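COMPLEX REQUEST
Ligand: beta-D-fucopyranose
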Amino acid sequence: MLMKPDDSPAHAEFDLQADALGARFPRGFAWGVATSAYQIEGAAQEDGRGDSIWDEFCRRPGAIKDGSSGELACDHYHRIAEDLGLIASLGVNAYRFSVAWPRVQPLGAGRWNDRGFEFYDRLIDGLLERGIAPFLTLYHWDLPQALQVGGGWVNRDTVDRFVDYAVEVARRFGDRAASIATHNEPWVVAILGHEAGTFAPGVKSRRSAMQVAHHLLLSHGLALRAMRARGCAAPLGIVLNQSPIHPVTDSAADIARARLDDGLTIRWYMDPLLRGCYPEDVLEFLGEDAPRVESGDMEAIRQPMDFLGINYYTRNLSGTGAPLERVESARELTDMGWEVFPGGLPELLLRLQADYPLPPIYVTENGAAYQDRLVDGRVADRQRTRYLCAHVAALADALESGVDVRGYFVWSLLDNFEWADGYTRRFGLVYVDYATQRRVPKDSARWYQSLCLRARAARGDRSSDTAGHGNAA
Ligand code: FCB
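STATUS: Structure written out below.
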């Protein structure tokens, strides 16, 4: 089932680029779309699923901008057949999703919930039948609430619970998953969840946040070790959100602040994962708030990784004073207020490559929110197409400069529950009318489809080539 191509003149320019762009990527490149469990599944009370910290957080008055929750979301849990067809219609050969821990282990310890696992079985098999490689993430922020009651990620025991969960998912799906990522964006869990408190579980303590960051990294390393020890064949890694940090002026104070922010967001994660230590300047800045690290932890964190996922949306400006506003007016922003800055992607990847012994890279998320309108059955989201086109071109630049990039995933397949922003932000290639759950591919979906199909055709990719991302290779 293919969508009718968009033949409007407005799209001709991007279409031409799709041809040329597609040819810049190698055979077997993963072209995908990404989602996460809590943002799309709904069915929060069904088939034995336990509460997650996001269910709990959404009940707090004022926590979510529009007072909503992921209770129904895109009702993906019940519409999986339709959504599999939708994914296939995009011409992608890869799909990134997350497993909801409380769906498969309601209390985060002890009993497994087979009905939960059956849902992911259907999803994975449905993808494979369509020649689409399943990229699985274990933790996209939905900790079982029962573990939060015991302290959540601040409590070191949660690390062991996560390892058990990882081993069980790998045992069931490791033979079919094209890859398994432990965590999605540990910075967000630690900082937005435990320092800013704007995301679940809504804690506001820097000390807790840094302990959480350490426990997330430790749980990643121990899970990799444990999954491998049990013979898991899927490539294993982690997904980090990373943005180049630019000083807002060239004053010494702004440059110093930017360096510290670089340490807090990039090096705090990359250094332990790839070098086995935390950055000294950040430890010094944290002082008393630095995490408690036990002997053996740093070796455990630095496990060989088969891939690294990078989520890229924008650059960040850092500074000590007010001039941020001055720069603001000159910048093109998405509906999140994030600057459109495609050049930051190759800049970031080349810098990481220069500083670290990188495994193969996947851009596991990239996309933009805009105020989309459904008019006469169509969403003319030209800005999104322009955003995607510019970022794919920038990624091709990185590839041609020698970065080993293996895949690219658009965030997101569907408009969905955008965390504290609720349903007020639309990131999908496919529009969701929440009143009816009707899905309408936006113009950007048609463009992405033409890119994926042309890129794959240019390299003679057959759908069976996508298996090359998994252990069938
Ligand atoms: C990333 C998250 C993803 C989505 C996008 C917009 O930080 O991983 O779930 O919210 O941002």
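REMARKS: The first helix runs from residue 9 to 22. The two ends are 27 Å apart (CA to CA).
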